[in-house]
From TrEMBL:
Any one Gene Ontology molecular-function term assigned to this protein's record: acetolactate decarboxylase activity
Name of this chain's protein: Alpha-acetolactate decarboxylase
SUPFAM superfamilies for this protein: AF0104/ALDC/Ptd012-like (SSF117856)
UniProt pathway annotation: Polyol metabolism; (R,R)-butane-2,3-diol biosynthesis; (R,R)-butane-2,3-diol from pyruvate: step 2/3
Domain of life: Bacteria
Lineage start: Bacteria, Bacillati, Bacillota, Bacilli, Lactobacillales
EC numbers for this chain: 4.1.1.5
Organism, scientific name: Companilactobacillus tucceti DSM 20183
Length: 237
Protein backbone atom coordinates (compact mmCIF):
# COMPACT_ATOMS: atom_id res chain seq x y z
CA UNK A 1 0.00 0.00 0.00
CA UNK A 2 1.26 3.52 -0.86
CA UNK A 3 2.25 5.61 2.11
CA UNK A 4 0.21 8.76 1.61
CA UNK A 5 1.54 10.42 4.81
CA UNK A 6 5.09 10.73 3.39
CA UNK A 7 6.46 13.65 1.37
CA UNK A 8 9.58 12.58 -0.55
CA UNK A 9 12.15 15.24 -1.41
CA UNK A 10 15.31 14.76 -3.45
CA UNK A 11 17.94 17.44 -2.97
CA UNK A 12 17.30 20.77 -1.27
CA UNK A 13 16.52 24.20 -2.61
CA UNK A 14 19.67 25.36 -0.80
CA UNK A 15 21.92 23.29 -3.06
CA UNK A 16 20.59 25.18 -6.09
CA UNK A 17 21.77 28.53 -4.64
CA UNK A 18 25.50 28.13 -5.40
CA UNK A 19 24.70 26.37 -8.69
CA UNK A 20 24.88 22.69 -7.77
CA UNK A 21 22.62 21.88 -10.69
CA UNK A 22 23.77 18.38 -11.67
CA UNK A 23 20.95 15.90 -12.16
CA UNK A 24 21.30 13.39 -9.33
CA UNK A 25 17.99 11.49 -9.49
CA UNK A 26 16.11 9.95 -12.41
CA UNK A 27 12.41 10.42 -12.99
CA UNK A 28 12.00 6.63 -12.78
CA UNK A 29 13.35 6.73 -9.23
CA UNK A 30 11.23 9.76 -8.25
CA UNK A 31 8.05 8.02 -9.44
CA UNK A 32 8.73 5.14 -7.03
CA UNK A 33 7.98 7.66 -4.26
CA UNK A 34 4.84 9.27 -5.65
CA UNK A 35 2.39 9.84 -8.50
CA UNK A 36 2.19 13.60 -7.91
CA UNK A 37 4.95 16.19 -7.60
CA UNK A 38 7.04 19.12 -8.80
CA UNK A 39 10.72 19.72 -9.57
CA UNK A 40 13.27 20.96 -12.09
CA UNK A 41 15.71 19.29 -14.49
CA UNK A 42 19.51 19.31 -14.63
CA UNK A 43 20.81 22.85 -15.16
CA UNK A 44 17.36 24.15 -14.11
CA UNK A 45 15.93 22.60 -17.26
CA UNK A 46 12.37 23.90 -17.10
CA UNK A 47 9.64 23.33 -14.53
CA UNK A 48 8.13 19.93 -13.77
CA UNK A 49 4.71 18.85 -12.59
CA UNK A 50 3.65 15.23 -12.09
CA UNK A 51 -0.08 14.47 -12.28
CA UNK A 52 -1.56 10.97 -12.04
CA UNK A 53 1.90 9.46 -12.49
CA UNK A 54 2.70 11.36 -15.72
CA UNK A 55 5.62 13.84 -15.61
CA UNK A 56 5.25 17.04 -17.63
CA UNK A 57 7.89 19.69 -18.26
CA UNK A 58 7.41 23.32 -19.27
CA UNK A 59 10.69 24.05 -21.03
CA UNK A 60 12.35 27.46 -21.36
CA UNK A 61 10.61 28.07 -24.69
CA UNK A 62 7.15 27.48 -23.27
CA UNK A 63 6.57 23.99 -24.69
CA UNK A 64 4.93 21.29 -22.56
CA UNK A 65 6.74 17.96 -22.91
CA UNK A 66 6.07 14.54 -21.38
CA UNK A 67 9.47 13.45 -20.11
CA UNK A 68 10.92 9.97 -19.94
CA UNK A 69 12.22 7.95 -17.02
CA UNK A 70 15.88 8.79 -17.71
CA UNK A 71 15.32 12.54 -17.21
CA UNK A 72 17.55 13.68 -14.33
CA UNK A 73 16.90 16.27 -11.63
CA UNK A 74 18.82 18.15 -8.91
CA UNK A 75 15.63 18.85 -6.93
CA UNK A 76 12.11 17.39 -6.81
CA UNK A 77 9.20 16.54 -4.51
CA UNK A 78 6.73 13.70 -4.89
CA UNK A 79 4.01 11.93 -2.94
CA UNK A 80 1.14 9.51 -3.46
CA UNK A 81 -2.02 11.57 -3.90
CA UNK A 82 -4.78 11.14 -1.32
CA UNK A 83 -6.37 14.59 -1.34
CA UNK A 84 -9.56 15.47 0.51
CA UNK A 85 -11.75 18.35 -0.65
CA UNK A 86 -11.18 21.41 1.54
CA UNK A 87 -13.37 24.12 -0.01
CA UNK A 88 -15.04 25.41 -3.14
CA UNK A 89 -13.94 28.88 -4.19
CA UNK A 90 -15.29 31.55 -6.50
CA UNK A 91 -13.29 34.47 -7.90
CA UNK A 92 -11.01 34.53 -4.86
CA UNK A 93 -7.76 36.52 -5.02
CA UNK A 94 -4.49 34.68 -4.44
CA UNK A 95 -3.57 36.37 -1.13
CA UNK A 96 -7.05 35.78 0.31
CA UNK A 97 -6.95 32.18 -0.88
CA UNK A 98 -3.61 31.48 0.80
CA UNK A 99 -4.88 33.00 4.07
CA UNK A 100 -8.04 30.88 3.95
CA UNK A 101 -6.08 27.72 3.15
CA UNK A 102 -3.63 28.29 6.01
CA UNK A 103 -6.49 28.91 8.42
CA UNK A 104 -8.44 25.84 7.28
CA UNK A 105 -5.34 23.62 7.21
CA UNK A 106 -4.14 24.65 10.66
CA UNK A 107 -0.87 22.95 9.67
CA UNK A 108 1.75 25.72 9.63
CA UNK A 109 4.33 23.54 11.36
CA UNK A 110 4.19 20.57 9.04
CA UNK A 111 4.32 19.80 5.34
CA UNK A 112 1.14 19.60 3.28
CA UNK A 113 0.08 19.70 -0.34
CA UNK A 114 -2.70 21.69 -1.98
CA UNK A 115 -4.34 20.76 -5.27
CA UNK A 116 -6.57 23.31 -6.97
CA UNK A 117 -8.57 22.43 -10.05
CA UNK A 118 -10.34 25.34 -11.67
CA UNK A 119 -10.21 28.43 -13.83
CA UNK A 120 -7.52 31.02 -13.09
CA UNK A 121 -7.50 34.65 -14.24
CA UNK A 122 -4.37 36.53 -15.31
CA UNK A 123 -1.88 33.80 -14.43
CA UNK A 124 1.85 34.34 -14.93
CA UNK A 125 4.27 31.41 -14.86
CA UNK A 126 7.94 31.00 -15.59
CA UNK A 127 10.45 28.44 -16.78
CA UNK A 128 14.22 28.69 -16.78
CA UNK A 129 16.28 27.79 -19.84
CA UNK A 130 18.60 24.85 -19.31
CA UNK A 131 22.18 25.83 -18.56
CA UNK A 132 25.28 23.67 -18.76
CA UNK A 133 28.52 23.40 -16.79
CA UNK A 134 30.17 25.38 -15.39
CA UNK A 135 26.85 26.37 -13.77
CA UNK A 136 26.15 29.88 -12.52
CA UNK A 137 24.48 30.56 -9.18
CA UNK A 138 20.72 30.15 -8.83
CA UNK A 139 20.21 33.92 -8.87
CA UNK A 140 22.21 34.27 -12.12
CA UNK A 141 20.66 31.23 -13.81
CA UNK A 142 17.15 32.33 -12.84
CA UNK A 143 17.71 35.60 -14.73
CA UNK A 144 17.61 33.50 -17.90
CA UNK A 145 13.94 32.71 -17.50
CA UNK A 146 10.95 33.23 -19.71
CA UNK A 147 7.60 34.27 -18.30
CA UNK A 148 4.26 33.25 -19.77
CA UNK A 149 0.81 34.73 -19.19
CA UNK A 150 -2.80 33.69 -19.78
CA UNK A 151 -5.79 35.98 -19.25
CA UNK A 152 -7.87 32.93 -18.36
CA UNK A 153 -6.79 29.31 -18.09
CA UNK A 154 -8.34 26.11 -16.70
CA UNK A 155 -6.12 23.49 -15.15
CA UNK A 156 -4.48 22.04 -12.05
CA UNK A 157 -2.25 23.71 -9.47
CA UNK A 158 -0.05 21.53 -7.24
CA UNK A 159 1.50 23.30 -4.27
CA UNK A 160 3.68 22.14 -1.39
CA UNK A 161 3.68 24.06 1.87
CA UNK A 162 6.82 23.82 3.98
CA UNK A 163 7.12 25.05 7.57
CA UNK A 164 9.39 28.03 8.25
CA UNK A 165 11.54 25.67 10.33
CA UNK A 166 12.63 23.95 7.08
CA UNK A 167 13.37 27.14 5.11
CA UNK A 168 16.40 26.42 2.94
CA UNK A 169 15.78 22.69 2.64
CA UNK A 170 12.56 23.79 0.96
CA UNK A 171 11.06 27.27 0.64
CA UNK A 172 9.06 28.21 3.75
CA UNK A 173 5.46 28.73 2.66
CA UNK A 174 3.94 27.64 -0.65
CA UNK A 175 5.80 26.44 -3.77
CA UNK A 176 3.34 26.03 -6.66
CA UNK A 177 3.41 24.64 -10.21
CA UNK A 178 0.60 24.53 -12.79
CA UNK A 179 -0.54 22.61 -15.86
CA UNK A 180 -3.48 23.59 -18.06
CA UNK A 181 -6.07 20.97 -18.99
CA UNK A 182 -5.12 21.23 -22.67
CA UNK A 183 -1.40 20.84 -21.83
CA UNK A 184 -0.50 24.06 -23.66
CA UNK A 185 0.50 26.19 -20.64
CA UNK A 186 2.11 25.67 -17.25
CA UNK A 187 5.20 26.19 -15.11
CA UNK A 188 6.25 27.65 -11.77
CA UNK A 189 3.52 30.08 -10.70
CA UNK A 190 4.67 33.65 -10.18
CA UNK A 191 1.19 35.12 -9.74
CA UNK A 192 -2.47 34.90 -10.58
CA UNK A 193 -5.29 37.35 -9.98
CA UNK A 194 -8.12 35.03 -8.91
CA UNK A 195 -9.45 31.50 -9.22
CA UNK A 196 -12.79 29.67 -9.26
CA UNK A 197 -12.75 25.95 -8.52
CA UNK A 198 -12.09 23.31 -5.87
CA UNK A 199 -9.28 23.25 -3.29
CA UNK A 200 -8.12 19.86 -1.96
CA UNK A 201 -5.69 19.19 0.89
CA UNK A 202 -3.28 16.44 1.96
CA UNK A 203 -1.15 16.60 5.11
CA UNK A 204 2.14 14.77 5.72
CA UNK A 205 3.64 13.76 9.05
CA UNK A 206 6.88 12.45 7.52
CA UNK A 207 9.47 14.12 5.28
CA UNK A 208 11.73 11.64 3.54
CA UNK A 209 14.77 13.76 2.64
CA UNK A 210 17.11 12.21 0.08
CA UNK A 211 20.54 13.79 -0.48
CA UNK A 212 22.88 13.35 -3.49
CA UNK A 213 25.76 11.76 -1.56
CA UNK A 214 27.33 10.40 -4.78
CA UNK A 215 27.78 13.92 -6.14
CA UNK A 216 31.30 15.17 -5.34
CA UNK A 217 30.50 18.88 -5.75
CA UNK A 218 27.61 18.65 -3.32
CA UNK A 219 29.56 16.66 -0.74
CA UNK A 220 32.50 19.11 -0.80
CA UNK A 221 30.59 22.41 -0.98
CA UNK A 222 30.76 24.86 1.95
CA UNK A 223 27.22 26.26 2.30
CA UNK A 224 28.25 28.67 5.07
CA UNK A 225 29.48 31.08 2.36
CA UNK A 226 26.08 31.19 0.60
CA UNK A 227 23.22 33.60 1.23
CA UNK A 228 20.77 30.70 1.11
CA UNK A 229 17.49 32.08 2.45
CA UNK A 230 17.50 35.36 0.51
CA UNK A 231 18.46 33.68 -2.75
CA UNK A 232 15.90 30.87 -2.37
CA UNK A 233 13.09 33.34 -1.68
CA UNK A 234 14.08 35.62 -4.57
CA UNK A 235 14.18 32.74 -7.03
CA UNK A 236 11.25 30.66 -5.76
CA UNK A 237 8.86 33.24 -4.33
Amino acid sequence: MSKTNILYQHGTLALLVPGLLDGTLTMNELLKHGDTGIGTGEGLDGELIILDGTPYQLDGDGNINIIDGDFIMPFANSHFADYAEMMEIENIERDDLQSQIKQAANSDNTFFSIKITGTFKNMTTRAVRKSSKPYDSLAKTAENQNTFNKDEVTGTLISYHSPTLFDGAAVGGFHSHFLSNDHSFGGHILSFESVTGVVSFQQFDTLEQHLPTDNKEYMEHDFSKDNILDDVHKAEG
